Amino acid sequence: MRMDTPCPVAVLIPTFRRPEGLALALESLAAQTVADFPIVVADNDAEAAAGIAVARAWKSERPGCEISWISVPARGLSQNRNAGLSHAFARYPVEAVAMLDDDSHAEPEWLERLAEAVRGGEADLLGGPTLYTFPPATPGEIRGLEMFGVPYASSGPVPRLRSANNLAVRRRFFEARGPELFHPDFARSGGEDTYLFRSALARGERMEWVAGARVVEPVPEHRCAEAWILSRHRTSAANSARISRMLDGELAAWRREVGSALKEVGGGLLRFATNRRPRIVMRQRFAGAAGRIAGLTGALPSCYG
């Protein structure tokens, strides 16, 4: 442990039917270079409650660790994150809560780096890199896709963060925004984090990148398949259009998203005409254009159970 004062950050792990991943995430927290920080597990499967069972077992093996858990009956990504944040801030006198997804694990200095940034700055939201690992046979063109990259090389203020995985939320920001920080309309589609970041930018709220706060996410084999990647890109684009409609109004959203769709089609055609590799990027462009138009017309993608 390198910090002389109590850690100002609690950790929230939202979980849904991934007991093995949750166990690995908890093990990574046991190896952190800071100590005496509370952990909350929010289980979104109220019937089976496998996540709560993992948390109980972990607690029994480490009676000195502070871990609590809640069952969240309302199904959805947004609902689970919101309930976990509300519980963490109500139960623990911390300055911020950092989220770690149940398919990721934290590097040993993850929480120390976030805690330093919370203490040393005023950002409302703080995020760090997610480093992806792949099955051995994954082609280089898949490993090199932008969606698996790190958006910023160094720490500091940024206009937008990448994901709710590896995201710290400051208490005053959460209390000012209210208990539905993550918009419930994105419960099944994902995009709840994108909505948060775009709305924060529009409101002048501060976001910060913490380059040393790193988590690792193993990519399962099915997510390396082209069909999954294109579906994910189409869904993300549809969510972007939905968010534009919600934040900017219909006319501005149509202008923005149709313009972006045309650029994606143009980029895809250029890659096709020049035979530029990898070809999957061309297909991503077309999938993104289709997704934006679908989002403008009210299509509601559903990716999560």
**Percent in strands:** 5-15%
Note the gap between the termini: 39 Å
CATH architecture of the largest domain: Alpha-Beta Complex
| Mean of pLDDT | 94
Number of domains: 2
What is the helix fraction of residues, given as a range?
A: 40-55%
- Number of alpha- plus pi-helical segments: 10
**CATH topology of the largest domain, which one?**
Spore Coat Polysaccharide Biosynthesis Protein SpsA, Chain A
What is the H/E order? EHEHEHEEHEEHEEHHEEHHH
Detail the poorly predicted runs.
Answer: none
Question: What characteristics describe this protein?
Answer:
305 residues, 11 strands, 2 domains, 10 helices, Spore Coat Polysaccharide Biosynthesis Protein SpsA, Chain A, 45% helix, alpha/beta, 14% strand, 8-stranded mixed beta sheet
Explain what this protein looks like in three dimensions.
This is Glycosyltransferase family 2 protein. GO terms for molecular function: glycosyltransferase activity. With 305 residues, the protein is of the alpha/beta class. It has 2 domains: 9-221, Alpha-Beta Complex (Spore Coat Polysaccharide Biosynthesis Protein SpsA, Chain A); 225-296. 45% of the residues lie in helices and 14% in strands. The protein has 10 helices and 11 strands. The protein has helices at 19-30, 50-61, 77-91, 110-120, 140-143, 171-177, 192-202, 226-248, 250-273, 279-296, and strands spanning 9-15, 39-43, 67-71, 96-99, 105-106, 125-127, 130-133, 156-157, 167-170, 207-209, 215-218. The strands form 2 sheets. Strands 3-2-1-4-9-6-10-8 form an 8-stranded mixed sheet, sandwiched between helices. A 3-stranded mixed sheet has the order 5-11-7. Helix 2 (50-61) links the parallel strand 2 (39-43) and strand 3. The longest helix has 24 residues, at 250-273. The relative contact order is 0.13. The mean pLDDT is 94.
